Amino acid sequence: MVLTVLCSAAFMASLDVFIVNVAFDDIGRDFGGAQLSDLSWILNAYTIFYAALLVPAGRIADRFGRKGTFILGLGLFTAASAAGAAAQGVWWLVAFRITQSIGAALLTPSSLGLVIASAPAAHRVRSVRIWAASGAFAAALGPVIGGLLVQASWRWVFLVNLPVGIAALVATMLFVPPSRDENVNRIPDVLGAGLLILAIGALTLGLVEGPDWGWTDARIYTAGAATLVAFGGFLISSRRHAAPLIDPALLKVRTFTWSNVTALLFSVPFAAVLLSNILWLQQVWGYSAIRTGFAVAVGPLMVPPFNAISHRISHRVPVGHIVATGCLLYSVAGAYTSLTVTVHPNYATSMLPSLLIGGAGVGLALPSILSSATANLPPAQSATGSAVVNMSRQVGTVLGVCILVAVVGSPVTAEAAHTVFRHAWWALAAVGVLGAVAAQGMTSKSSDPAPAPSDDPRADLVPSD
After folding, report:
1. What is the pLDDT of residue 126?
2. CA distance linking residue 251 with residue 253, whole number of Å
C-alpha cells in the first residue's frame, strides 16, 4: 500500500512534465495563437524550477521529515493544478506551472526517501526500480492521457490531478509511516538553489529565443553571461556553505556520478523526441490530439516489459551495458524516423517502428539509471541522492526542449518542416550516443559483470578512482 501511494504521486508529478505536449495546439488557439517559443515556457518553466529545487527539497525532507514534506508538496501540486485549469493567459499558466513545480520538487525526493526507508531490506532494490519505472512510464504515457483529455478541453489536463492528488493525500495520512534523518540539522544552501535557477533559466532563455532574436543579438550574449556568472556563483556558494546542495561525498561514488551524467544526456533526446513526434503528427500530418495520443501509445507500452528484462539480466550483465543499449536504441529510433518520415502520413513504416524501438530503449535505460544511482544510498541521504539524479533528468529535459525549439523554429511549409525536423532528430540521436558512452562509467572498470544488486544501503558508498 505504501509503495502504491508513493508511486502514484511520483507518477503524477512526472506525468505533468509531458502531459501538456499534446495540448499545445489547443492552448495556443485558446490564447490567441501563441507562438511555439512562448508555449515552450509552459514546459520549461516547470522543469527549470523543478530541477533547481529538487536538491534543496530533498535536504528539507531529510531534515524536517519526509512524510510532512511529501504531504506539503502533494497539496501544493494539487492546488496549483486547479489554478492552472482556470488560467486565462499563457503567462498566468506559466506562473501556475512554476507553483506546480515547487510542489513536485517537494514530493519527488521525499517519496523516494519514504520508499527506501519503509521497504524491507530484501525488497529495497526492487521497490526503487518500481518507483523509477512508474516515473518513466508516466513521462512516456503523458501524451496518451493528454490526448484523451484534450477532447473535452485542454484544462482537463490539469483538472485530472485533483482526484488523484486528494486520494493520495488521504492514503498518505493513513498508511505511510513517518521518516526523517536525525543527523541532518542544517538548512540547505538556499542561495545556491536560487543561483542554479538563474543559471538554468538564463541558458533556457538564450536557447529558446535565439532563433527569434538572432544569435548575435546583445540579449543572447547577456543571457550567456548571466548563465556563466550565476553558475560560477552556485559553485562558490556550494564550496562555502555548510550544507551544500550536493554533498561532495556523493560525487565520490562512481555509480552515482556517472548515473547523473547519463541521466542528463539521455533526458535530452527523451524529452525532445517525444515533443517533436507530437508536433510532427499534429502540425504536419494533421492528426487530432486524441489520434496523436494513441499513435504514440505504443512507445510507453514497451517500457514495463523491457524494464522487467533489464532487472532480470542485471545480475549477469553490467548495468552500464544495459543502459548503453537503451541509449543506443533511442538514438536508432530518432535516426530511423529522420530517414523514413515524409510529409505524407506513413505511420506504419516510419513512426511506428521508431516508437517501438524508442520505447524499448526507455525501458532499458531510464529505470536502470535511477535505480543504479539511488538504490544503494544510505537512508540518511536517500531523499537528497534521488533529488540530485532527478535534477539531472530535468536539466536534460530543459536542454532537449530548447534544442528542439532552436532547431525547428517556426517553419511555414511542410517541406521546410521536414528539413528542420530531420536535422533535430539527427542532433538528438547524436546526444543519445554520448549517453551510451557515459553509461559505461556506471559500472566498475573491470570487464566482469556486476554482482547481483545489493540490498545493503552502504554497499555502494565506497569511493572509486
Report:
1. 78
2. 5
Q: Under the phi-then-psi rule, with left for phi > 0, alpha for psi from -120 to 50, and beta for the rest, what region is 453? A: beta
- Whole-angstrom CA distances from 245 to 113, 219, 241, 335 are 16, 30, 9, 37
DSSP sequence for 250-300: HHTSHHHHHHHHHHHHHHHHHHHHHHHHHHIIIIIS---HHHHHHHSTHHH
Query: What proportions of the chain, in percent to the nearest 5, are helix, strand and coil?
Result: 80, 0, 20
**For residue 284, pLDDT beyond 60:** yes
d(CA 96, CA 381): 30
* Whether residue 463 has pLDDT greater than 50: no
Cell of 152: 473535452
**103: Cβ contacts below 8 Å, ≥ 6 apart:** 13, 72, 73, 74, 75, 76, 77, 78, 79, 80
CA proximity to 365, closest of 135, 142, 146, 145: 135
CB 150 within 8 Å of CB 106: no
Cell numbers 484523451 label which residue?
148
- Please say whether the beta carbons of 34 and 90 come within 8 A: yes
What is the pLDDT averaged over residues 204-233?
86
Which residue is it, cell 517556426?
A: 410
pLDDT, average across residues 364-372: 84
> CA angle, corner 17, sides to 12 and 18, nearest 5?
100
97-155 tens-digit pLDDT: 999 989 988 988 888 778 877 777 777 777 877 887 777 677 667 777 888 888 888 89
| Cα 106 → chain centroid | 15
Query: Is the dihedral angle over the CA atoms 361, 367, 369, 372 positive or is it negative?
Result: negative
Distance CA 249, CA 462 (A): 10
Q: Which helix (H) or strand (E) holds 8?
A: helix 2-18
What is the gyration radius of the CA atoms in the chain, in angstroms?
A: 21
**Contact at 8 Å (CB) between 72 and 190?**
no
Provide the grid cell at 57.
527539497
